[in-house]
Amino acid sequence: MGFVSHRVDRKEIKPGDHIYTWRTAFAYAHHGIYVGENKVVHFTTGEKGYKSIQDSCLTCPDCGFHKNGSGVVLSCLDCFIGTGSLYLFQYGTNTYVHISRLRGGTCTIAKSDPPQEVIHRAMYLLQNGFGNYSLVLNNCEDFALYCKTSLLGSNWDEAGSSGQVNGWVMSPLNVIVSSAVKVFRCSTPVAAVVGTGMHCLSRYMTDIGVRKDVVKIKVEDMALLRS
Ligand SMILES: [Zn+2]
Question: Where do the LRAT domain residues begin and end (predicted)?
């Protein structure tokens, strides 16, 4: 595994791992929980997401399995990775490492629960659903983060846990920085450096391992909450 990129070989991953793959020329990453035997449970936009899996998979008969109306889907590892590469999401990273990451959605300060609990949550949600998919509030990364930690923001319907979204969208600091840049008319390189630093800091402050509004919610209660 590379120190910076977290890129892994498929032989290196273990059941209960949170894995991800970059899609559409690195514009966003798709996240899931590896549950063993070449299978991944992940959260998709719904019909379109699993239809393409079912149509394209030739090797795995239960690829694309999902409950009616649920975006949580089971697929083989090949279909999950698609044409991308495989990466391992990092848990329990220290503050320095977390802030130094330029890109959100690759690590968290929160600790992972034991693999059997993670797999239990993923399989339970495969049967019971994870609510409606929303890019900002409830996406594939939120799903994987929840399975790994059972942590959920008390205002989960206003702010998701996703690092790749929170770095840019949910950050009041980004607004402050862009206003400051306008007021002081910083030269572009300075603005870019300040913006990047603030982006990393704001992502740190919205990390589920740092936020104070997160609570552990049992998966059995979770399904009721989002049904
Ligand atoms: Zn497949």
Answer: 20-156
